[in-house]
Amino acid sequence: TRGGGQKCIDSPMVFFQAATLYTTLTGRRRVRVSTLGLVTTKVPAAVYRSADLGTVAAIMTRQAISDLDDPNEGSLHNAQSKVFQKCVSILSNYRLHTTAKSSP
User: How far apart are CA 56 and CA 54, in angstroms?
Assistant: First the structure.
């Protein structure tokens, strides 16, 4: 275990599960359960290799659009700046945690 009582995960897979309780049009109660199983790794480079660029771009785009709706800081400049900072963070972490450390 780690500090704070957390157990170390040393399994080849990790699972996430979510449940939604809803009522149908006919008044019946239903539970919909979704389970997602993901392969774990101890090699950070594997995370970057398996990342879906289209999904990452879609999430960043949706977040930028959501930021535009912010009444306090919703401007195109702020949204562009946040996307730029996220890209810099992703690339710097890639370089920090992979063999790209030695590349220019």
Answer: 6
Backbone angles phi, psi at 35, to 5 degrees: -125, 135
Close Cβ partners of 11 (under 8 Å, ≥ 6 residues apart): 40
Cα separation, 60 vs 79, in Å, equals 10
Does residue 30 register a pLDDT over 60?
Answer: yes
Mean pLDDT over each residue of the chain, to the nearest integer: 83
Instruction: Return d(Cα 72, Cα 15) in angstroms, integer.
Output: 38
Against a cut of 0.70, is the pTM above it? Answer: no
Ordered DSSP codes for 29-76: EEEEEEEEEEE--S-HHHHHHH--HHHHHHHHHHHHHHHHT-TTT--H
Q: Both tokens of residue 16?
A: 């996430």
